[in-house]
Amino acid sequence: MNLRMKWLRNQLLPLKLDGMIVSNPINIKYLTGLDEEGYLIVGPKENIFVTDSRYIESVNRKLTIDDEIIAYNSKELDKYDYEGIFMSYDNVGFEEKYVTYEQYKKYLQMFQVSMSETDGLIENQRIVKDEEEIEYIKKACEITDNAFEYILDYLQEGVTEKEVAFELEKYMVLNDADGIAFDLIVAFGENTSMPHAVPTDRRLRTGDIIQFDIGCKFNGYCSDFSRVVFTAEPTEEQKQVYNFLIEEQKRLSIAFKDGANIKAIIKDRESEYKLKNFALLHAFGHGVGLDIHEQPFLNSKVDNYAKENSVIAIEPGVYFPGKYGMRIEDTYKVEKIGTTQLTKYKKDYIVIKL
Amino acid sequence: MNLRMKWLRNQLLPLKLDGMIVSNPINIKYLTGLDEEGYLIVGPKENIFVTDSRYIESVNRKLTIDDEIIAYNSKELDKYDYEGIFMSYDNVGFEEKYVTYEQYKKYLQMFQVSMSETDGLIENQRIVKDEEEIEYIKKACEITDNAFEYILDYLQEGVTEKEVAFELEKYMVLNDADGIAFDLIVAFGENTSMPHAVPTDRRLRTGDIIQFDIGCKFNGYCSDFSRVVFTAEPTEEQKQVYNFLIEEQKRLSIAFKDGANIKAIIKDRESEYKLKNFALLHAFGHGVGLDIHEQPFLNSKVDNYAKENSVIAIEPGVYFPGKYGMRIEDTYKVEKIGTTQLTKYKKDYIVIKL
What we know:
The structure is a homodimer. In chain A, 35% of the residues lie in helices and 21% in strands. The first copy, chain A, is an alpha+beta fold. Chain A has two domains: 124 residues, Creatine Amidinohydrolase, Chain A, domain 1 (3-Layer(aba) Sandwich), CATH 3.40.350; 211 residues, Creatine Amidinohydrolase (Alpha-Beta Complex). In chain A, the strands form five sheets. A six-stranded mixed sheet of chain A has the order 4-3-2-1-5-6. A five-stranded antiparallel sheet of chain A has the order 14-13-15-18-19. In chain A, helix 7 crosses helix 8. Chains A and B meet through helix 5 and helix 8 of A and helix 5 and helix 8 of B.
């Protein structure tokens, strides 16, 4: 059995759980490496992965005897099999952040055990990355940097946001990425004022600013990166906003060291935004790993402390509704002191001629 | 207010609901056209879309006075605002198939109303498509047919499954698709034995059979299509399996007319599979619309009747674990008598020379 599965089994007793049902596919991948549909039952007697006939062959090709996981086709399990599995279980944990209300009721009925919330047990464990995970994230960051460098050459008068987004995806996939980490954002001109702009057929014109927010996956692990590109000399106002973002990001990247109080750091930066009269349209950042948005979330709502070897995206942004917006973002690894930047593209003004 | 919103409001009273919280983004898109994150509160007094600061500008750009929907930034709503909204509500419907157990508990606490399951109310309504929806699906089918024709020319010795899948996606996106409707399946040789094969770096060799399962979206609406391609003259066994699938699909496409008993039809075909000793690794098909898999599901588990103007994918498949598999699939519109095929690529043996 691998270390992560052993870790989970060791959590159960102190939590007074006889077992746990893992339903979130990202958590299943984290624990077992499997990305087939199904759910995992972790218990003192055995570990069971319940999948269906579409996936059973592929699951069985991947699992080895060392995994100590038995795969079943759900069709072949009846009421009595579940009774057998859960016979010695009184209280089983489930993932209330992932399981739907309907599924919860089905579990109750099928398994005939009492079910307890687990409050992000596995998600919390995923915050601190091991060496292998860091290597995968670094590789995703490297592909993203290279894709951005590639796309700067591709940009020309008249290309659409959609075409540019697609060209970025193509570069990523043909250069070892599993795929994109989220729907890539490429926004021109006035569309940059929306943090979650969806690429349209809007064509690029000289004078536009361009917002990129891009990332890919490598072996399941994500990168996250944003840059602004100018197609004309930036105005004084634009320069001021841009410089402000660079300073903000730098300040945050220094503040986020092992043990730092996230709530306090973010509260402080929120005050700065208020002073400058800038609207806060999104958080200052988030953890990055198997999920593109995972813990820790860089907001001032909950008490939370930065941890060494966690990976976070830091992304201050400033937006003027209907006019334009800018956001700078890099993926960082949190260290004992400060952070190491994993996406590395430079942050000088990027001015291109179409 | 549009017809779909009016329809939903008319459902509430007979269901003894004072309002409904719509959380499933596909249902929100169906009702309002919005694809921003958030949830919709439909009530007798007003319709409210609660989103957040990332999306508020984009939502407000889309909504007009005719929509009769008020958009709020969730940050600007406090306990007292929710009290105001839900003051005259006793019992509110929610989507138990979509809402997580945690979210359900949050809704209860925030809204201070009693919440009732709605048992797929909107999903059921989505089964029968209107003319506009059919047009969008037809367009998605046409793009898919063309993408398949295009890719046959692209195939050559040594290309990888991943490269072919990506080339298909590129063709779709550059030819008016919003994007792919699901992770495209391109499987070579022995990989075809897994119905949900994920494209790998496996290279194409003469003699391989190739399984395609592809589809795209147009204005949010999906297409679904599968074909087998031979790179050498098919063996007698392969021909028999292929012909069996063509016959199966034809039989089903005739059986699925308005009012047909889905359970009975599928039970009958399952017996045929058993007689032939073929494993049933997946259902015979499913509804297609804003979701790639939606109602009706073509299985023998629940009582269900086909409806005119619903759209379904019919996809019989036969698999020999570790060896190979084949699946033929087209998207059909259900008519008063029989069906109309919407993906149109021919079904003769497709034999290509690499």
